[in-house]
Amino acid sequence: MKDPFMAHLGFAVLHLAPGEAVVAGEVGEAHLNLHGTAHGGFLYALADSAFALASNSRGPAVALSCRMDYFRPLALGARVEARAKEVNLSRRTATYEVEVVAEGKKVALFIGTVFRLGGEAA
Question: What class of enzyme is it (predicted)?
Answer without folding.
Answer: hydrolase
